[in-house]
Amino acid sequence: MKDVKIGLLGCGTVGTGVAKILYENKDLIRSRVGAGLFLKHVADLDMETDRGIRFEEGVFISDAFQVVDDPEIDIVIEMIGGETIAKELILKAIDNGKHVVTANKALLASSGNEIFRAAAKKGVDIAFEASVGGCMPIIKTIRESLVGNRIKAMTGILNGTCNYILSKITDTGISFKKALEKAQDSGFAEADPTLDVEGFDTAHKLTILSSLAYGMELNLKDIYVEGISNITPMDIEFAKQFGYRIKLLAISKYSENFVEARVHPAMIPAGNLLSNVNGSLNAVSVTGDAVGDIILYGHGAGMMPTASAVVGDTVDIARNLMLGISNRIPSLSYQVEHIRTIPVKPIEEIDNHYYFRFSALDRPGVLSKISGILGDLGISLKSVHQKGRESRGPVPIVMLTHIAKEANVRKAFDQISKLDVMSDAPVLIRIEDEE
Question: N or C, which end of the chain is more exposed by having fewer CB within 10 Å?
Fold first, then answer.
């Protein structure tokens, strides 16, 4: 077969990694695929930066639309990111009958239904392994390895920045602000880390995984999202004393009538494998009715791990092209006619265990006031701990609950925060355990 011709849109960090692999491992790839993957064009507005690659004459251009309009290009790899020009280019490539590889989880989470419908109508493939978990083959695992399983639940650490920050606070006791600065200095966090630390990046990834696992339309807007910026060393230390570690979790559970899909910090038992995933690493636990529990673990970001996943997707499509086929595996795991709308259960209806921390003035009757409010709303306490008593100063009161409904917990917190003995806002962290 003739070489498969590729157009690369965007030559930033990951795009450069993709180009490096395609150039440096071209003989290895040819020996495994049976055809060469030929990089015909690389488009990027920055044509001055030295990327450490010697492109052939005419390969590097500034016009991305020249790439998607080139009739010789078989596969377009989109590495621009964002939700504006990237969307326009992907839809144009699809309309021109080209297969697309992307790592753009924000775009897929927000506009994926439109993009996947366009690809199905045109009969082309959309591959996006690198959009979730970097080099972890979680998408391939759900679509292919677990195709005979009903997926019952997924729990993941899907953002390396947040995991690095929480690991630093846990290991050294430094504040969130200082841990974030270390993450930025080490290249694990952006100058503006909002998408990461407030949980939005993780929500994008959970949107994609939930669609793949349950055959539901992509639904970002109904996912509950809470970040880690309010997590303190004090709460991490208390968690440790109770046998837990705090992680930012993506949680998804399937029921016949609804799906739970939420992103928030949670305490998980120290013996849980996910609790020992530290630094910038990612991991996902998947529960299927046939396989039980499995876990995938690896680098969720970075130039070469992410580029490796992109090249893997490109090779999958190239192999299909060699056989003259497309859509061998449905992009969203289910056949188009079986993808349906499944409601996402509101966070207020979730039942969970909770960790509460109240900072109250050291006065008689404080504990009974708090306990009374909780009891009136049906919130049963598993244990109560009063820490660090100081005369006439605020006292940390820590409580762990039995199963309680989120809506009742929120009502209780609203009432407790208005008590005149409260010196700071109450803290709530959900506990995810085997119960």
Answer: C
